[in-house]
Amino acid sequence: MKKLIILFFSIFSLFSYSQEDFKKKIAQDACKCIGEIKLEKKSKEMMQMQLGLCFIKVSTPYKEQIKKEYGIDLSKDITNDEKMGELGEKLGILMVSECADTFINFVDQSGLTDEYAQESTAEENSAEFMNGEITKIEKDAFVIFYLKGDNGILTRFYWISNVDSNIELEKKYQDLVGKKVNITYYSADIFDHKINDYRKVNILSMLKTE
User: Fold this and answer.
1) Are the beta carbons of 10 and 97 closer than 8 angstroms?
2) Cα–Cα distance between 111 and 44 in angstroms, integer?
3) Of 132, 133, 143, 205, nearest to 174 (Cα)?
């Protein structure tokens, strides 16, 4: 699940025309390719294979840039599952910036979310807890809760995927300002184009009112 969340987070990524243009073109071509795949009556294995073929097709014209940027040589690494998996993740991140709905829908129907979900146990084991008061809520591409903990520290938490809650969170989250809550969250490193580096964010997984 964490990899998928990081993909969702990459919707914030922007591309500079000069250095990032080839990535944007790959993402656009990949979005077009998977958009042409008929999802009906296809097995998950077939859909995943077609996704892989799309990735190879759109990457090949830019193999030199990919080798320089990611250290993946498409001429030699095509049979390396680890390298190809790494390339798939990177292309997925680029695609979310171009066609989030199309890509997320395909990932969901292709069964890739099941693979990501297998990581959830490890994430839950590393989950952290906090109690406090919601002081502010920001709405952008994602909802961000500002929580003042019992220790007096203000922390931001990002609502990106399903959150376990004792209320109808989708309908009532805006009413939480000033309310005491208990939350569970985990941390993930995401790439922030503004600082050209990775930063750690807190991903909300459970929120319950007191």
Assistant:
1) yes
2) 6
3) 143
SS3 (DSSP) at 52:
helix
Secondary element (H or E) of residue 21: helix 21-35
Predicted TM-score of the model (pTM): 0.48
Contact 180, 131 (CB under 8 A): yes
Distance between CA atoms of residues 49 and 92, nearest Å = 15
Residue 202 has pLDDT above 80, yes or no: yes
Among candidates 187, 148, 149, 143, which has minimal Cα distance to 165?
143
Cβ of 138: how many Cβ atoms within 10 Å? 11
Chain centroid offset of residue 147 CA: 23
Q: Residue 203 above 70 pLDDT?
A: yes
Backbone dihedral angles phi then psi of residue 79, each to the nearest 5 degrees: -100, 5
